[in-house]
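Reopening this ticket.

The earlier resolution said the output was attached, but the attachment link was broken on my side. Pasting everything inline this time so it's all in one place.
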Amino acid sequence: MSAYKVLIVEDEKPAREIIRQMVMQEERLFEVVGVAQNGRQGLEVYEKLNPHFVITDITMPIMGGMELLTEINQMDTQPQTIILSCHQDFHFAQQAIRLGAASYLLKDDCLADEQLLIRTMKELLPSVENKQHMNDKQALLETALRTNQIDLDRSCFLDILRGKEDSWQQLLTADPDLATATYSLIYAELDRSSIRFPIEETEELKIWQFAGVNVLQELLGVYGWTKTIALDRGRFISFCRCIDLPEKMPAVLVKAFQTYLKMNVYVHLCAPLSIGSSTEWTYLKALCKENHLFFYEPLQRVAYPGAAVEPRYRDIPAEEVSYWSQVIQDVFMQMQFSSEQPAQWQRFLTAAQAERWEPEQIKQLYRKACQQSLKWIDNVPTDTPVNWELDEVLQKVASVQTLHQVQPTIEQAMRGLRDALQRSNPVSAAMAQLLNRLENELPEHVSLEGLAREMDYSPPHFSFLFKKMTGLPLTQYIRNLRMNKAKLLLLHTNLKTFEIAERIGIENYRHFNKLFKQQFGMSPTEYRRTMEQ
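Inline output:
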């Protein structure tokens, strides 16, 4: 066990030093953590350091020892207090004991017997241990009661979602204005990437839920009566009897979680919300069932819609799925061998954000592209030091909560793979840099011989390496690249057909029309018209 903490309160400097030396005779057992010149300073130090022992004089300026004892008695923690005095008057000793002093010693006696103070402190150690044990026991009891209350509140709230109307009364019974109450609703969800333990560890999670409830109660309680319920998977819901919470309240809550719990949190604030009608139940039920509430906006402040939550997301158009899947797959290939941030990332993220595509479909795009881009790894030498666990990465992608978490999750793994492969396979690294250039600067004429010469390979060997990496012959790969870029331009620009043909490196727009129809079964004009319907 660490040494017991001791605070010395004495106005005379020589006396303070003598007392300190007496205590330090048993420095393994006792540690002087603070000294003060009067009772007021001593009280400030005590509140800050919470020592086990307080050794104090009686007569001091500003605040004396008896007043200090009176103030300490009003606090939750009680130290062992030893009075050192020059007064032999029984009245002082009687008053000190009445105020809770553990011992009353004369300074002259301590000077005559240098072991007297230490012996007295050692005799008081069982009382210190007993008080510490009682404090710990009380803290555990209070925590158990609070944890039990959290479980009861959660059960009650789930009953509300199941339609049991009387559960509102039970849950919010402490609100004096329940009958006419209007609330702000705060729905918060821990950022699982910032949690330092698996979310499945329920006992560990309970501790942090307890802390999260305290943070929300303390911050929101300033504005009105507040009730906070800890839900599953690190989620919380609070009802606050204030519909005019500050505009920056979501950001304030985020900062509080980061400061006190060292975790990030996403926040949804909705007001005003009246309690008791079926529309509120419908809204709450939809809110709590939504698995991707914060996918596009980590901080949300909305007015209560008064009805069921509208569909939040739309399906990715079928004609765009194959295009973006190939784009993401190409990006993965490039990232394995290039430290540059691919421009295609931002194109995809911008499109997803603008269209609010279904989060699960976006995750599926990433998972599929990741799996496809790694098929060629079977041909990498077996001694390559690749720290790559595909299943683990895919699980992480499945659990991300925001759009901008999907990319870094896979990107980190891909960059680790890139570093490993570059050390063992520089040929593949050079090939991927070539693919990156073709993606961003697609020229009109691309020849196998020209690229092979650029890479310093024979055409047959270059063709073999290219197909091994991409899974396609060069001509097919270039055609797919041109056609997929054409689809994107048809969907997202007003360029004419001949202008798009020029953009993708095909001078003869009639030839472009022919290639497009061969690949997609319709002409560019028909494709655009179909998409606009």
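Reporter confirms the inline version is readable. The domain at 142-303 is CATH 3.30.70.270 (Alpha-Beta Plaits). The longest helix spans residues 125-161.
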